[in-house]
Design a protein that fits this description.
CATH architecture of one domain: Alpha-Beta Complex
Largest sheet: 5 strands, parallel
Radius of gyration: 22 Å
Number of helices: 16
Bound molecules: succinic acid
Helix content: 25-40%
Strand content: 15-25%
Strand order of the largest sheet: 7-3-2-11-18
Distance between the termini: 41 Å
CATH class of one domain: Alpha Beta
Structural class: alpha/beta
Shape: globular
CATH topology of one domain: Flavocytochrome C3, Chain A, domain 1
CATH superfamily of one domain: Succinate dehydrogenase/fumarate reductase flavoprotein, catalytic domain
Length: about 525
Amino acid sequence: MKTVTTDRVIIIGAGLGALYAALKLAPRPVVLISPETLGEGASSAWAQGGVAAAMDAKDSPDDHAEDTIKAGAGTVNPMVAKLVTQEARDYILDLTELGTPFDRTADGGYVLSREAAHSYARVVRVKGDQAGAEIMAALIEAVRETPSVQALEGVMAVDFETEGNRVTGVAIQAAHDARSAPIMLRGAAILVAGGGSGGLYALTTNPHRIRGQVIGMAARAGATIADPEFVQFHPTAIDVGEDPAPLATEALRGEGAVLVNKHGTRFMLDVHKDAELAPRDVVARAIFEQSQAGNRPMLDTTDAIGAEINALFPSVTEACLRNGIDPSVDPIPVAAAAHYHMGGIATDTHGKASLDGLWVCGEASSTGLHGANRLASNGLLEALVYARICAEGISSEFAPVENAPEVALEFATGGTAPDPEAVQDLRQTMTNHVGVVRKAAGLKTALRTIARLEQNHGDSPSFLNMCATATLIAAAALLREESRGAHERSDFPDTKPELAQSTLLTLSDALSLRSKICGEPE
Ligand code: SIN
């Protein structure tokens, strides 16, 4: 394989964590591996709610940490919750300085949205539901003006190179021609900031690019993965047959929108004392049950928001209108869809993975903040905090580099693209058997199917990465014989106090389990 060596820090991904880390590393030279033009195809840009931060005078970082721990259903690391929530305000101020046009009150304060399981209105937002897109736009502008950052757009990472326990390089391909032969890009420090796994499911709110590839890549290189079974399903993906499904932000329920079914019943009243603002996992399961029962769940914004929805939530309105729904008068059909992966590459409080030379931030990581159920709008906050921590760690571990030539690449042909039908088969398997409600028989079916797909299509490294993550999710879900947070087992409905700890799994552990299942009679 052709090899290119660089003194630049290699950042895999181009979402919020990647861009923020690149800015915090400046003037140290970095090279960003971005599958698309900056801003396109990153989950961060699709985030509607905003960033959770205790900005209200009555609120406090300790209350925010407490809500985070409570939502996480017993497996949040309290030290991490404290670390992340204490700093939240500083990041809002920093993003404001970088040009993010947060919604402001008449007296100059921040407009705060209410989301589920927060004890206060705590989500700092932009133009209603535009937080992700607007924060990303501000960061992209700053990155484009920072000479130390080289963005390699249209390039994706597919494999790590290791020497012993150290990651020494990353194999990259042209993102729009996966048949391009990979090039090995070697560098001393590699930061993974490449998103989660939602797109491994057929019903998801995540962009097409986000299919567990970077978690799978790290797992294939031997990294320890934490909590892979904890996948968050968003209760209110707009159910109109689009792939990915557009999101109807939780902030709509914060404004008083209610969930009803086709019979007009407000079903959340019987499920939880906080009704529509119950923790996300509770609402997702209730929506799923309504869908399974053929009751057609819908989000009704008409009384609470009415005609103002267009001005207050333009992305939601646009998604509805293009599907023939006028949300100011019609309830919006919704379904629970894979949205966020709490699990990921296990990282310590310095953002370091179990492999030397590898740092991780954002959704690809599992820092211990989210436990079994992420508190809404804590995702962007965690990405910011750990991007800064990783940047500082890299800067302290390596001597300063003042200048490094730009990385020049010329791809030849010779690689293999994932087979689209196999990818779709994998995604449908995950939705059918590793979804909102799981049971042993379905999880075993999923593991057998993943093994078969991998065997038949294993010549594409990108597909192997997806299969690795899918295997880890299904294997960990099978091993966790209880229900906790977003992980619901119909055959083990109770939460078992003795299992209140994180799962730590390597791919080889998960593959051993998969082989055993494949060897059992069906
Ligand atoms: C939403 O706006 O409902 C999504 C926010 C999040 O996932 O944190």
